[in-house]
Amino acid sequence: MRARDFSTERRSSRSGLALALAGALALGVAAQQALVARAELARAEARVADARREVRALRERLTQIEARPGVDQAAIARAFAATTKPPAQVVRDMVTLMPPGVRLDRLDLTYGPEVEVLVRVVARRALDYDEFLDRLAVSSRFASLEPGPETREGELRTTLRAVYRGGSGR
User: Fold this and answer.
1) Residue 109 to residues 58, 106, 119, 159: CA-CA distances in angstroms?
2) Alpha carbons 89 and 111: distance in angstroms, whole number
3) Are 109 and 92 in contact, with CB atoms under 8 Å apart?
4) What are the CA-CA distances from residue 145 to residues 2, 55, 119, 127 (Å)?
5) Are 127 and 109 in contact (CB under 8 A)?
C-alpha cells in the first residue's frame, strides 16, 4: 500500500474562500465610506471658505462705512451685530437649549455693542425651568444670565436677561 503525502496534495477550502470574499467585501465598503467622507470634507471646507470670504467682505464694508465722516458708531455696531447674529440664529440657539417642558412666550432683542436678550418663558414645572437655566449657564452662546422674579407654584412664568455671544459651543 502506498502512503499518501497530504502536504503536497491540493485541497479546496470553502472556509478560506468565504473569508477571502468577506475580506474583499469589507475592503470595498471601507473604500466607499472613505470616498464619501472625503467628499463631505471637501464640501465642508468649501462652506468654511465661503463663510471666511463673507466675513472678510463684511469687515471691509464696515471699515469703509466707518471711514465716512459723520457716521454714527452705535448704528454701525447695531447693524454689524444684526448681520453677524441675526434674530433667527438667536432664536434657534435659545430653543435648542430648552427642555420639552419650557416654551418661549416672548423674545426681545436689543442690538448694540452686544446683543441683549430679554426672554419671557413659561415652564410646566420648576424643574423644567431649572434645567433650562442650567443649560443656558453652561452654554458658550449666552452670557450674563439674569433670571427675573418667579413663583414656583404650578406653571412657572418669568423673564430672563442674557447677552447673546453666538459663535460655536453648546
Assistant:
1) 22, 10, 9, 13
2) 14
3) no
4) 93, 28, 11, 18
5) no
pTM of the model: 0.52
Q: Where are the beta strands (DSSP E) in the chain?
A: 102-111, 115-123, 142-147, 156-164
Closest CA to 159 of 127, 101, 126, 118: 118
| β-strand partners of 103 | 122
Q: Which residue has the cell 470595498?
A: 28
pLDDT in tens, 2-16: 666 656 555 567 777
Q: Can you tell me whether residue 102 is helix, strand or coil?
A: strand
Contact between 121 and 99 under an 8 Å Cβ cutoff? The reply is no
For residue 127, the Cα-to-chain-centroid distance in whole angstroms is: 25
